[in-house]
Amino acid sequence: MAVNVKCLKCQGLYAVGTKKCKKCGTSLLNARKYRVAIKLPSGKWKTKTVDSYDLARKIEAKYTDDLVRMGELGLTKAPLIDEAWESLYDQCKRILKHPHSYEKQWRVHIAPYFSGTRMDAITPREVSKFITHLGKKRAFITRKNPKKGKKPLATSTVVRMVKLVGRIYNHARDMGMYSGENPVSRVKLPKFNNQVNNPLTDGELKRLLQTLSDWPNRMVALALELCLITGKRTGEIFGLTWDRIDLEHGRVQFIVKSQALNDHQWLPITQRGKQILKEAKNSVPQMSAPCGLTDMELVM
Questions:
Q1: Which of these three, 40, 70, 100, is where a domain ends?
Q2: Does one domain contain both 278 and 207?
Q3: Which long-range contacts (CB under 8 A, 24 or more apart) does 291-299 make?
Q4: pLDDT tens digits, one per residue of 220-274
Q5: Per the domain annotation, does 294 fall within a domain?
Q6: Its pTM surpasses 0.90
Q7: For the segment 159-170, what is each residue's pLDDT rounded down to a tens digit?
Q8: Are 274 and 250 in contact (CB under 8 A)?
Q9: Are residues 140 and 55 in the same domain?
Q10: Is residue 181 located within the same domain as residue 208?
Q11: Which of 76, 139, 184, 241 is deepest in the core (most CB within 10 A)?
Q12: DSSP, res 189
């Protein structure tokens, strides 16, 4: 923290009391201003230039008072982003079924760039640089055969990494670890379209159905064929219970994952779908149902 005399001609800085600029020779008795500078814990400098020495000293005192009051004078430093991440990951392990994907995102992409940085030192500009950095990274096309070369990270992957940084900041604020702003909130994320259309050809579909009809594990084969008929995922099919099957009216009830509690949808079922459900019902006694459900409750 310091107050210096500033030369108006060459912008040189000198100790208070200096009468002549050593660079340009200008007298500092009249052609001068005073600059107040204070170094923040993040390593950045906060400065202000004023006309009088008395005003400079008042501003210096105000800066000092603000820093002490805000806990930025070393009494309470902003946490490292690593500390906020560890707290978030501990929470993820408690409430998420598969938290390890977050750990990999942090370890592979975020930690190499931001690890060891205090949260107040990461600005929106730094986040923008991080986006540029990710855009230049390349990943193996396939893990099993790295010799096939590398490709740039997908835009969706870049956006996912930046959003995780933002989530770390939001978590730190919620936990009272950090009181500053979230720099990600002021950054415009790149737009992308991750829609993929890769339907099976008629020949491929025919071969798949033939394979499923001959597959020895009938329950798995029936479940996959029911996925094709309904457009649902395997988790939704294996989670079906008989109380949501209405064979008389030819429909199936699926739980919709939304904010509305117990929200659901009814889907009509084809004749082949009815045959699959009937065959599954005949095979149910051979199953062992998880999660405490009886064999008669689970469809598959």
A1: 70
A2: yes
A3: 293/241, 296/242, 297/241, 297/242, 297/243, 298/238, 298/240, 298/241, 298/242, 299/237, 299/240, 299/241, 299/242, 299/245
A4: 999 999 999 988 888 888 888 888 899 888 899 887 765 455 577 888 989 999 9
A5: no
A6: no
A7: 999 999 999 999
A8: yes
A9: no
A10: no
A11: 184
A12: P
